[in-house]
């Protein structure tokens, strides 16, 4: 699981049927301070997040499928939460 910021969305007119009704978003991993931390990934949105929001992302295949409400959905990453704030001390 990691923190990320939604930086874009993808439009796919042809896609796996299990993705129907789900948004595909581009997510930039971020540190708790909000700094970019790694390469951006594509994640299936299961919570209705939007551009600029900080989100919680799972990257385990089985967890991603469960978050989508689908058994064995072909997903590497899924957004499972929208972060309201982080209480963190360095």
Automatic annotation (TrEMBL):
One of its GO terms (cellular component) is bacterial microcompartment. SUPFAM superfamilies: EutN/CcmL-like. The keyword Transmembrane helix does not apply. It is found in: Bacterial microcompartment. Pfam families: EutN_CcmL. Keywords: Bacterial microcompartment. Its main location: other. The keyword Transport does not apply. PANTHER family: BACTERIAL MICROCOMPARTMENT SHELL VERTEX PROTEIN EUTN (PTHR36539:SF1), ETHANOLAMINE UTILIZATION PROTEIN EUTN (PTHR36539). This is Ethanolamine utilization protein EutN.
């Amino acid at each position: 699981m990691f923190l990320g910021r939604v930086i874009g969305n993808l439009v796919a007119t042809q896609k796996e049927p299990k993705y129907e009704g789900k948004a595909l978003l581009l997510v930039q991993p971020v540190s708790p301070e909000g700094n970019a931390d790694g390469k951006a990934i594509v994640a299936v949105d299961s919570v209705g997040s939007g551009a600029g929001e900080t989100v919680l992302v799972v990257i385990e295949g089985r967890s991603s499928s469960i978050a989508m409400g689908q058994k064995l959905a072909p997903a590497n990453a899924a957004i499972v939460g929208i972060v309201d704030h982080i209480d963190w001390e360095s």
